[in-house]
Amino acid sequence: MTGSGTDPWAPYRTAVLHFGDPPSFTMEVSAAVPDATVKALHKAGFDAAFAVITAHHPFPEKLPEAENDARHRELADEIARRKWLHLPCTGKSPDGGHEEPGLAVACGRREAISLARRFGQAALYWWDGEAMWIEPALASTPREQLTPAG
Fold first, then answer.
1. Residue 48 belongs to what domain range?
2. How many structural domains is the chain composed of?
3. Is residue 3 predicted with pLDDT exceeding 70?
4. How many whole angstroms separate alpha carbon 125 and alpha carbon 145?
5. CA-based angle 115:91:71, to the nearest 5?
6. pLDDT band at residue 11 under the 50/70/90 scheme
């Protein structure tokens, strides 16, 4: 997701994550996570912490679709090379006017931040097993908890 204006996290706070291809479940990043979503995450193998990372639109650029698609394939190849559990995950604005394909990735927080930096991302989503966070990668803005814990 791409930040704008004086509040870089505004679009991150309202995103809806669509897991799978085609999507089989969703998560509103700023809302309490329903038990059914937690069960769907567990069924997909995500029993603990994971990141959601995109390679689209490296901060602060807007790239053509073909270039974003190539960057996404490179990200997917790197995650597969590392043999990390992953699942397609597209972040969308609530009105569907903006979307960025990415991947939910079962890896450590530091590894996720490093990978997001490598792909020029301001931030990533981090699920700690109980709550969703906006985790800065290149941005200097502090991390922010989105969903209520528990």
1. 11-145
2. 1
3. no
4. 10
5. 45
6. confident
In-domain check, residue 2: no
pLDDT at 150 over 70: no
Please report, as a single letter, which amino acid is at residue 149.
Answer: A
Question: What is the pTM assigned to this prediction?
Answer: 0.92
Among residues 112, 68, 67, 65, the alpha carbon closest in space to that of 86 is found at: 112
The answer to whether residue 82 sits within a structural domain is yes
Adjacency order of strands within the sheet including 144-145: 23-28, 16-20, 86-92, 99-105, 50-54, 123-127, 132-136, 144-145
The owner of tokens 């990372």 is: 53
Per-residue pLDDT band at 149 (split at 50, 70, 90): low
Rounded to whole angstroms, the Cα distance separating 57 from 67 reads 9
Tokens matching residue 100: 């960025």
Structure tokens belonging to residue 136: 């800065």
